[in-house]
Amino acid sequence: MSGQKSFVERYFADKKTRFDEALWNNFVREVDARYRELEGIKIDWETVSDQGIQVALDRINEVLLPASDRIRRVAELGFLTAPSATEHTLEEGETLTFIVSEGDQRDLFTPSPFVAITRGANATDYAIGRALYYNPDTGQFDVRIDAVFGDPGPHSDWFIAAVAGSVSAQVELLADAQTARTGAETAQTGAEVARAGAETARAGAEAAQTGAETARTGAETARTGAEAALTTFQGSYHGARDTEPAGASLGAQYLDTSQTPNVVKVLTETGWAPTVTISIGGSRQQIYVATAGQTGPFTVDGGFSNGSVNVNGVELFDGHGVTLNAAAGTFALDIARSAGDVIVFRGYLANDAADIYVKTEADQRFVSGKHAQSFTASEQGRARGNIGGDLLAGFRNKVINGDFDIWQRTASQIYAGSGAGTFQADRWRLSGNMSGTTVTISRQNHILGQTDVPGNPKHFLRLDRTVTGSNNTSMLQRIEGVRTLAGKQVTLTYYVKGTAGKQIEVNRGQVFGSGGAPSASIADQIQAAVPLTGAWVRQQHVFTLPSIAGKTLGSSGDDYLYIEFNIPAAQGNATLDLSHVSLVEGDATQEPDPFSRRHIAQELILCRRYFERQLGEVSGGSCYVGYCRSATTGRFVAVYSPKRAIPSISFNDPTNFVVFTTLNNFCTAMIATDIMKDRALVSATTTGLTQGDGCQLNFAAITAYMDVDAEL
Question: Which of 539, 461, 534, 482 is nearest to 506 (CA)?
Fold first, then answer.
């Protein structure tokens, strides 16, 4: 109401105001009434704080953790393959529609121009096709089938995978084959026409056979001439022998058994020359003299594919006077012969005509395990594809970072009197008692274009011992899992140089881990003395790793196989350069390069299974986002590559990090808790925060880093 006085007006005092009991009591009552109204609507500040914290935690659970899980799933599943349960029967030339199954792989799948469609249950059932259309929203994927291998279906357990560009060459080869098939079909038509003519000729031959029987008497007279011809042939054929016959006439022949396979040679004006290799077939001619009543079967030495039989000058064909059995290499006559009849078989032996090549052609067409060959890059790629030697064949090499490309910690470090057990190049561990010893481990560069070490690697490791104590110094790699290659023949290959006149020794071992009651380790020497020179030398050792049957593993999951390159103390000061190290199954000593290179991205992922350094590559760069837990604590979820075991986490200097809200608040302490194989909770201590606010953890300097370590 406009006429009502305000609280101030009613109790405003001046020099004339009388302070009595009534005025004071009215003042207290009105203040009490107003305070009671405020108490009814007050909010507990602690409740508000807790609610704010809960909202931040809920956002982490709703956004950050699902995103982290999604990142992990994508890393595990990959983005070049996608599953489909669409049932289809694969058929060349057909256009098929597959529905890619829902999930992360559908979202990220990007088909290449050519794809491989492979069954999940049997990888030998697959097709190569051309991608026509793909909709990531619906999963619809249209593909034209170019080639089918194995069981075409119907099946519904498909995996669609992007394939390398070399498939283009393979598809062109397929097109060439289809063109060849068309030509073969045209030739078949011509053969049918020829066959009709042969049928007509056969009728004439049957008529001629009747006349031939009438002419038998005349043939008897001709027998004398045939026998004379046989005598002449026998006079020119010098049999099977390993030396050239002496005094032979032009046209003479012999079977040269000194060559493998054996070769028939004929004497020409220029000397003895080969005719045909027996092992791949060729012409067949064999003469028989019948006994009374004989019909056969007659055996053709070396077998035959087809032929004809001449009896006393009369030519007989299969089904017409004679039955040929190519499978058994024999023939039988329909009519019994008289004693002394001359029977001559003429024919040929041939494999599939497309498979017959002279030796020089065969050397260029077929992969040989006995001698060196020259193939184009395309031919080499096709050969690797035919034997399954694709990109994943790089995992044949059990050594990680054998080309020394990955150095997450630092590229050079001096160790004086200590440092045993530390790592420089990823996965390579400095070993030995360092007391009284000084070494420098550094990454060195190969000369661009050098050919001494194959594969054109960029880097090699140098261990330079400048002060020698009383103990050995070595570089070793622990290969995860003592089961690795256990009981197998293996080949260790590496390239080495160093101080001329010095020697290193190479060792190996199997360690069954810790925890529980594991079996004792097995250690052995591979090579006692490997000489060093000033030039790169390929060294390779073939040996069999002991079986682990009957052994007991520790319970901590840290068992391993190791290889070690050691400079004995007796060698004094020395430099060791090491490059291109591989350990593969089998005897690889005849391979030009068994290293089996992996992509640098694959190598980095393998290294990060054991150690990862997250660096401040730029000052002010953001690490993680989180929230202010209190006025002095920021909390964040750190995500990293999955490790082989629960890692340890450390920070090089807390003052290199800041918690950023509206200002940079420098950290005084950093700690990781709730550590898992792929993520952890990071708490940063600082000042100037407002509880419940969002914040981010930033690098204050490019030298800032967080180490996540799960090394063996």
Answer: 539
Phi, psi of 309 (to 5 degrees): -125, 130
- CATH code, 394-607: 2.60.120.260
| Max avg pLDDT among 10-24, 80-94, 444-458 | 444-458
Those residues with Cβ within 8 angstroms of residue 639's Cβ, 6 or more apart along the chain or in another chain:
68, 71, 624, 678, 679
- Same fold for the domain at 81-165 and the one at 611-709? yes
Give yes or no for a contact between 85 and 98, defined as CB atoms under 8 angstroms apart.
no
Query: What does the pLDDT look like over 466-523, one tens digit per residue?
Result: 999 999 999 999 999 999 999 999 999 999 999 999 999 999 999 999 999 999 999 9
H or E element that contains 525: strand 522-531
| Dist. CA 712–CA 479, nearest whole Å | 8
Q: Specify which residues 143 forms β-bridges with.
A: 96, 131
CB 668 within 8 A of CB 655: yes
Q: What pLDDT does 48 receive? A: 56
Predicted local distance difference test score (pLDDT) of residue 105 = 77
Greater confidence (223 vs 401) lies with 401
Q: What is the CATH topology of the domain spanning 611-709?
A: Immunoglobulin-like (2.60.40)
* SS3 call for 603: helix
Q: Rounded to an integer, what is the distance from CA 615 to the centroid of its chain?
A: 30
Residue 277's pLDDT is: 41
Place of tokens 């290193």: 504
3-state secondary structure of 463: strand
Q: What are the residue ranges spanned by the domains of the chain?
A: 7-40, 81-165, 221-355, 394-607, 611-709
Cis (ω within 30 of 0) for the bond into 261?
A: yes
Dist CA 671 CA 436 (whole Å): 35
Residue at 148: amino acid letter: V
Single-letter residue type at 211 = G
- Type of residue found at 660: F
pLDDT at 77 over 70: no
CATH 2.60.40 for the 81-165 domain, yes or no: yes
Ranked by mean pLDDT, the top range of 131-145, 288-302, 503-517, 608-622 is: 503-517
The dihedrals phi and psi of 41, each to the nearest 5 degrees, come to: -115, 10
Instruction: Put the strands of the sheet holding 611-615 in their side by side order.
Output: 611-615, 705-709, 648-651
* Single-letter residue type at 505: E
**Residue 568 gets which letter from DSSP?**
-
Angle, CA of 560, 563 and 565, to the nearest 5°: 150
76-80, 105-109, 110-114, 688-692: least confident range: 76-80
Distance CA(685)–CA(665), nearest Å, equals 9
Tokens of 665: 């608040």
pLDDT digit string, tens, across residues 23-76: 788 888 888 877 777 666 655 555 655 666 676 566 656 655 555 555 455 444
Cα–Cα distance for residue pair 575/355, rounded to 1 Å:
55
Give the SS3 label for residue 266. Answer: strand
CA distance 82 to 99: 10
Q: Counting beta carbons within 10 angstroms of the beta carbon of residue 99, is it exposed (0 to 12), middle (13 to 18) or buried (19 or more)?
A: middle
Q: How far apart are CA 74 and CA 679, in angstroms?
A: 15
Residue of 334, 313, 317 lying closest to 223 (CA atoms): 313
Contact 491, 594 (CB under 8 A): yes
Q: What is d(CA 671, CA 634) in angstroms, rounded to the nearest whole number?
A: 11
Mean pLDDT, the chain, integer: 84
Intra-chain end-to-end CA distance of the chain, in Å: 84
